[in-house]
Structure formats: structure tokens, C-alpha cells
Amino acid sequence: MGLQFTWRSKDGILFRDHQGEQATLQERGRSPQTMKESMYKRIYSTVSIIPPGRVATYGQIARIAGKCSARNVGYAMSSVPPESDVPWHRVINSRGSISVRSHGEPSTAQRKMLETEGIVFSTRGTVDLDRFGWQGPKPDSGSDDR
After folding, report:
1. pLDDT tens by residue, 84-101
2. Are 36 and 2 members of one domain?
3. Does residue 78 sit in the same domain as residue 99?
4. Is residue 64 within 8 Å of residue 51, measured between CB atoms?
């Protein structure tokens, strides 16, 4: 669908689709909450196939999941419920670092979880993405192997 925010009006939020046609969310039949839930579901499905001992970047997950940004992936990872099986800890930033949290520090729990899976951090606190980076699913098989 590829909707892009245009402006708010008294009739709702107005979007412009990829062909330039305007429509409110009500006309599209999708609420902002439904759109967010759909995006998070795609993100969580993508993250769920990262194998143990591998990491992916926020931008990489956004490209694979589609129709979202690296920032959206970050928001989704911070919203993973504690009881979830989504391996949120396998998503790091494009510099190979664990991103700083709202309290101003990287997550020590995330680092410990990654180290338990065999991920090695440099003295600068970065992961070698060439060595531990996940290449994504193979298009022909759907496999998550490197």
C-alpha cells in the first residue's frame, strides 16, 4: 500500500499513496493502531528467524520486513513483551554496538545474552558484523542460514 503521511484534517489523518492519490485512514479501512500492529508483526517475524550466535542491524531488519524504518525496528524491539520468544537481543546498530537505552547506557543484559550465544565483543564494545552478522533469509529457500 505504501502510504505516506500528508496532513491531519477534520476527517482524519490524510495520506498519499505511492500513486499520489489521497485517502484518509478511514477510507483505507485501517487505523493507526492496526497499521502499527501489522508493522510490528512483520518486524517480530523477521527478528524471530535470526539464528543464535548471529546479529542483525536495525536497518537490515527494516529492509527485510519492509515498509518500516530502522527507528521503527528500534521502537518495536523496545516494545517486545518480557514473556515473548522474539530474540530482540540479536538486533544491534549498524556500528556493531548495542544502542544506548533511554537511561543513557547500553543494555548490559543484552550484551550478556549475546555473549552467552558466543558473540564476541571488541575492547571498544563492538561486534564484528563480518564475523557474526546474519546475512538474512535466502530468497530461494527461506532458510536463515548464513
Report:
1. 999 999 999 999 999 998
2. no
3. yes
4. no
> What pTM did the predictor assign?
0.74
Rounded Cα distance between 12 and 23, Å, is: 9
Distance separating alpha carbons of residues 16 and 23, to the nearest angstrom: 6
CA 138 to chain centre: 18
Single-letter amino acid, residue 113: M
Where in the sequence is the domain holding 94, given as residue range(s)?
31-132
Give the tens place of pLDDT for each residue, 34-76.
878 889 999 999 999 999 999 999 999 999 999 999 999 999 9
Q: What pLDDT was estimated at residue 116? A: 98
For Cα atoms 138, 48, 77, give the angle at the middle one, nearest 5 degrees: 125
Q: Clarify whether residues 6 and 40 are in a common domain.
A: no
pLDDT tens for each residue of 99-128:
998 788 888 999 999 999 999 999 999 999
Instruction: Single out the residue of 87, 100, 99, 96 nearest to residue 133, CA to CA.
Output: 96
As beta bridge partners, residue 13 has 8
Cβ burial of 26 (10 Å; 0-12, 13-18, 19+) is: exposed
